[in-house]
Amino acid sequence: MEVRNKIISDKQLDLYFNDLKPNYTDSIRKYISENERHDDHVSIHFSNYDYNDLIQHIANLIMNTNKYETKILIFNDPYGYKSIRKEDILGFLSNGNVELFQFIPIDYIKRFSKLAIDDSDGSQAITKFLEDFCPDYQTYLSDANYVQILQDHIKQALTFNQKFLSSSFILDRGLNRYFCLFYVTNHIRGLEVMNEAKWKLDSTTGQISTRNPEQLRLFEDHVHDDYLDKFKLDLLGFIRSSLSYRTNIDIYEFTVKNDSVCRHATLCLDLLRNDNLIQVEFIGRNNAYGITYPNYKKGITKIRVRGVNGKN
């Protein structure tokens, strides 16, 4: 804690809490006043804006900050899904050095999707949401994996045609109730940190937080092995898709963008080498794969990897 405080002690930190209900922000205010140690570098603000008014307020805050000196993290959790609009999220992300967590009650989306098909009364909100984030939702409504399909489509939509990077995490509340937390950033290191956090919460697939972790542990080894087998095949396909070779820089980017962590890439490269499916050429003295962010950032090539049998 002392080290952490030393790191941030000279940084100005502004915290903004907003909820339409004053008693919610009053509870936060009370908790902070009873537990906060005084810090001249921390300013805490409370408000009770309606969500639509809050959008403009946040936009003004972002526009009035120096994006080269200020980092902004937004946790956006409007009640339900009716206020979640793709254009608002893009507005947040387009005006500065902004990272965003977006909470979406994906189980509600699944439950009310049929309203959009039936054009029932009150279906405008769900129709707008689905058209924004999953335009071909009608194709998947009867699919047993509809929640996963929705999650994948929303995650992809939040990249805004690959302008940003996104990640997602399922929150299992039991009784078939699922919620989803999406993270959006323009920095690959931020995405890597998010992936690491997900894998700490779920060491089997890095995808789900459950109120019944014992249920996951029953099948942990089997599920994790299945995940690694799939990732290994995906990585092999990525290596073979190159006309020449892949470097540690390429593999780092592929790994992070596919919701995995660098230790998985290292392990899978070992497995592929043992199976004689790839050839690895080490650059430099150390026989290390070098799949790290510092090497990615500096453009330092540590390995060149090719598929064997002429399959590059």
Structural notes for this entry:
The protein has 312 residues and is α/β, with parallel strands linked by helices. It is built from 13 helices and ten strands. The protein has helices at 2-8, 22-35, 51-63, 86-93, 106-118, 124-133, 146-157, 188-201, 213-218, 220-240, 248-257, 262-274, 293-298; strands at residues 13-18, 42-47, 72-76, 98-104, 165-172, 178-185, 208-210, 246-247, 278-282, 303-307. The strands form three sheets. Strands 3-4-6-5-7 form a five-stranded mixed β-sheet, sandwiched between helices. A hairpin with a 5-residue loop joins strand 5 (165-172) and strand 6 (178-185). Helix 10 (220-240) packs across helix 12 (262-274). The longest helix has 21 residues, at 220-240.
